[in-house]
Amino acid sequence: MSNETEAQAIDLKELLLCLPTRERRTARIKMNRLSEEAGKPIYFELRALHYDEVAWIKSRGDNMDAEVVLKGVVSPKFESDEFAKSQGEARAQDAIKKYLSPGEIFDISRNVQKLSGYLSANVEEIKKK
C-alpha cells in the first residue's frame, strides 16, 4: 500500500508544528504592452490576497477583476489618489479601467487569484481501498 492510502488525518498540534505560519505568496510579472510603450521593461509585484480581502471584493459584486488588481498589485501602488488623479478620475477603481486594457486586468487578476489559491487543485481526495 502506498503512503497516501495509509495516510491518517493530521491533528492540529502536529499541523501547527510542521507549518507554523503561512506567508503570502508573491510574484513578479512583466507587462508586455506597457514595456513596449515605455521602451523598457515594466514589472508589477503581486501578492496573494487574504480571505477577508477576497470576501470584501466578492461582497462588492461588480468589477471583481479590477478590485483584485487593486488589492493584489503592491507595486506600483494603484490604490492611491495620485494614480486616480493621473487618469482624471476620483477613484482608483475607475482609473485602473482607463490605464489597463480589459485583457490586462483579466490576466493580472488571474495571476493574483492563482497566488491566493484559486484556479488550482488545492486538495486531493484519498480513496479508501
Write up what this structure looks like:
- The longest helix has 14 residues, at 102-115.
- It is built from eight helices and three strands, in the order H-H-E-H-E-H-H-E-H-H-H.
- It is elongated, with a radius of gyration of 19 Å.
- Helix 5 crosses helix 8 (102-115).
- The model has no long low-confidence stretch (mean pLDDT 88).
- It has helices at 3-6, 12-18, 32-38, 51-60, 64-72, 81-86, 92-99, 102-115, and strands spanning 26-30, 43-47, 73-75.
- By secondary structure, it is mainly alpha-helical.
- A three-stranded antiparallel beta sheet has the order 1-2-3.
Task: Write a concise keyword list for the protein shown above.
129 residues; mainly alpha
Helicity level, as a percent range? 40-55%
The main sheet orders its strands as 1-2-3
Radius of gyration: 19 Å
Low-confidence blocks of residues:
none
The run of helices and strands is HHEHEHHEHHH
Number of strands: 3
- How widely separated are the two ends? 10 Å
Structural class by SSE content: mainly alpha
Overall geometric form: elongated
Q: Number of DSSP helices? A: 8
What would you call the quaternary organization?
single chain
Mean pLDDT: 88
* Largest beta-sheet characterization: 3 strands, antiparallel
Assess the beta-strand content as a share of residues: 5-15%
